[in-house]
Amino acid sequence: MSRPYSFLLNRKYVLIAVIAVLCLAGIYRGAENYLAKVRVPPEERLTVALDKTINSSAFRFRMAVKIGDDTISKVEGERVAPDNVHIKGTMQDLPVEFIHAGDKTYVKGYWSDRWICLEGNKMAESELFVTEFNPLGIFNFKDIPVVKEIKDKKTDLKVLEFNPIVQNSLMELNYDNYFYRIWVDPKQQVITKALIQAQGKIKDNNKLEINLELWDHNKQIKIEQPDV
Questions:
Q1: Starting at the edge strand that comes first in sequence, how are the strands of the sheet with 70-80 ordered?
Q2: Nearest alpha carbon to residue 180 among 217, 219, 146, 224
Q3: Which residues are CB-neighbours of 88 under 8 A, at least 6 positions away?
Q4: Averaged over 127-142, what is the pLDDT?
Q5: CA-atom Rg of the chain in angstroms
Q6: DSSP letter string, 28-77
Q7: pLDDT by residue (tens digit) across 39-82?
Q8: Mean pLDDT across the chain
Q9: Torsions phi, psi of 172, nearest 5?
Q10: Quick check: 205 pLDDT over 90?
């Protein structure tokens, strides 16, 4: 005779537990949203975003590089730490696709429509492709004197602007007066978009512009060697 009562009592406890879990979930989401809106000094926001972005285990990206009025490269791809990368797009108006995995680089479209295997890391380390193979290399700086946060009502992202002293041999050699605008996800605290501009050292009209988009930070991404 006690079973119905016991059954109802158990259901009552289960209901209480479910409500408690939902309440905790609501509190967590509320706290996350609150922290995202809390005023953080732009220097601190940038430092954290750079650290979390550069140390992402994997990410996908889209990048366009222009010099003057000419688009030098326009690629999309993914990168998995430490140095596996897959990119596809156009370079110098030629369709190309690269896969770098382990100590081998595979190229298709640049010289042939078939995959060509290059032993070693020479292609990935070449200054000709260093930006496309490692887009996060543009976030290496010697110093960032001032960081400003820009209000933009069109987005929930935090927009930061600064003029850094870059630490990149290729960029230092050819360009100067760098301007960066980056968009930071306040919840994940990672960079999702960046605009980089610089003036050419040789010619004033030799202006550099890089547009970079980043997403799927720390997601499970697998890059495999193609069949050759």
A1: 116-119, 104-108, 94-101, 84-91, 70-80, 58-67, 208-215, 190-200, 175-185, 158-162, 147-150
A2: 146
A3: 75, 76, 77, 96, 97, 98
A4: 79
A5: 24
A6: HHHHHHHHHHS---HHHHHHHHHHHHHT-SEEEEEEEEEETTEEEEEEEE
A7: 789 999 999 999 999 999 999 999 999 998 899 999 999 999 88
A8: 83
A9: -65, -35
A10: no
